[in-house]
Amino acid sequence: MRMRMRMRMRMRIALVAGALAVACAAQPATAAEPAGAAQPATAAAQPATAAVAPAAQTVTSIPSVGPLFFPSLLGLGPTLRLPHFCSASVVHSTGHNLVLTAAHCVFGSGLGFEFAPGYHDGASPYGVWTVRRSYLDPAWLHGQDPQHDVAVLQMAPRGGLQVEDRTGAATLGVAPPAGTPVTVDAYVAGSGGRPITCTAPAYYTAGFPSFDCAGYAAGVSGGPWLTGGPNGRVVGVVGGLHQGGCTDSTSYTSAFGADVAALLARAQRGGAGDSAPVPGGDGC
What is the pTM of this model? Predict the structure, then answer.
């Protein structure tokens, strides 16, 4: 569901690329449940009482959370208020330079992707950060296993600083036990806009952590699942089953565990990144 606008996105890429080419010419050249996953502590079942799902609320800005832009160079995507298409968040790392999103949000090496943490109403108060490399689990690279729908993006420094130095970050955690309140922050696809947020108890669907809150439409893929606030623990990203969900009221994540920790460790070591495949269908 979260990426079902793929065909429209391909058309948009061509249009946006043309717009960027014109803009660049006009601007001065300035510098600028998988193996090892934690098992839920309680039974993986949706609560029996059928309560009405809460609705997401719009907030002005969340410093460590932002949308992804593609294609975008030199910060022009956010500056020109071009459409954003997925969400991401800063995760704590030794180099202070890593961001988490969904694997199905990434294709190729990450070249041409930019991240705008704290983005709102066309403004990028914490700067626009260029993706240098992307890191994905082999199970996604070779089979697009939905339990490994996670990508770690390495950001280039900006003005001598790393992205985490500007925004703060959440620490990587593990899949939440059923019943744990989680907060999901994300951006609905479009131009400009502000982030949405909602807190609700996690439950499990076929091994995937699940979350019921209305308003999570296309573009929220990659948005962090958080416990303990924006700088607490990130325990998931919108993705996994059906690439995040088939309706705007139920969202999923891959079950974070040892595999995601190993992926983050590999990204912290640096070295050659991966080339992500174009994601397949979401099965909705």
Answer: 0.84
